[in-house]
Amino acid sequence: MNRTVYTITSGALAALARLDAVAQNLANVATPGYKAERVLFRVRPLDEGTAAVAPSDVARTAAQVAQVATVRDFSQGPVRQSGNPLDVALTGPGFFVVSTPRGERYTRQGTFALDGEGFLVTQGGQRVQGDGGDVQLPDGVAAVGNDGTITVNGSQVGRIKVVDFGEKPALVAEGHALFAPAPGAVAVPLDATAVRLEPGAIEAANIDAVTGLVELIEVSRGFEAYMQAMTRLDQVAERSITDIGRVG
């Protein structure tokens, strides 16, 4: 009985963690540059590591679901035209660099604009970094090239800085499509030949709304099934106690 309780409880907690991740992803389906959150699990015997004996049938079936990690899916999101000449979508590896009170942060959200002082900023007001620091543009018609080069009235005035963290970026989500470097993570600047941008476009979240809704329904039903199993188990235990009491 106790083993069954542990198994059902661990499954319910796993379903709840997955439900939170799916709901978070759906809430950001319209957030440019958002990267989906995925929860990884594994199934293990309840007494794993406590006895050096061959697993019995009971040990193999009485298992618990353990949460291993929460990871980010950094795969490419769909690129959509925005009509804003200062918007840029990364169509390859890399992250834009922005300045925040907590230090440099990294994002795939290329929805840029100019503030009152002519600095290139994100939707949240963070200053976009170029090869020489904050990007400040003079008055005129600004345009961004495929390699990140910025021109005003046809003259080059700077280049948007793009960095990379390798195939599996060691980054920690901070919200608003911003990421902080994990301990030991090293940002490698990309030169103009390695940067691939699409001006006048944005990279949408790498989430399919329909698939997300189906997953939400599936996980919700799974969680309900665990709760029903727990209720049934409680009823069985109550019935057993009652019957034993009658026999006595």
Short recap of the structure:
The chain contains three helices and 19 strands. Helices cover about 30% and strands about 30% of the residues. It is an alpha+beta fold and about 250 residues long.
Share in helix: 25-40%
In N-to-C order, the SSE pattern is HEHEEEEEEEEEEEEEEEEEEH
Q: Determine the structural class based on helices, strands and strand pairing.
A: alpha+beta
Distance between the termini: 21 Å
Largest sheet: 8 strands, antiparallel
pLDDT averaged over residues: 84
Hey, roughly how much beta strand do the residues contain? 25-35%
Number of helical stretches of at least 4 residues: 3
Q: Please give the number of β-strands.
A: 19
- CA gyration radius, whole angstroms: 25 Å
Topology diagram in text:
Elements: H1 2-27, E1 37-45, H2 57-61, E2 63-72, E3 79-81, E4 88-90, E5 95-100, E6 103-107, E7 113-114, E8 120-121, E9 127-130, E10 133-134, E11 142-144, E12 149-152, E13 155-159, E14 162-164, E15 171-175, E16 178-181, E17 188-189, E18 197-199, E19 201-203, H3 209-247
Antiparallel strand pairs: 1-2, 3-19, 4-18, 5-6, 5-9, 5-14, 6-16, 7-8, 9-10, 11-12, 12-13, 14-17, 15-16
Helix pairs in contact: 1-3
Description:
- The protein has 248 residues and is an alpha+beta fold.
- It has 2 domains: 2-75 and 207-247, no CATH class; 79-203, no CATH class.
- The protein is built from 3 helices and 19 strands.
- The protein has helices at 2-27, 57-61, 209-247; strands spanning 37-45, 63-72, 79-81, 88-90, 95-100, 103-107, 113-114, 120-121, 127-130, 133-134, 142-144, 149-152, 155-159, 162-164, 171-175, 178-181, 188-189, 197-199, 201-203.
- The strands form 6 sheets. Strands 5, 6, 9, 10, 14, 15, 16 and 17 form an 8-stranded antiparallel beta sheet that branches. Strands 11-12-13 form a 3-stranded antiparallel beta sheet, with no helix packed on it.
- Strand 15 and strand 16 form a beta hairpin.
- Helix 1 (2-27) packs antiparallel against helix 3 (209-247).
- The longest helix is centred in the C-terminal third of the chain and has 39 residues, at 209-247.
- The radius of gyration is 25 Å and the shape is elongated.
- It starts with a helix and ends with a helix.
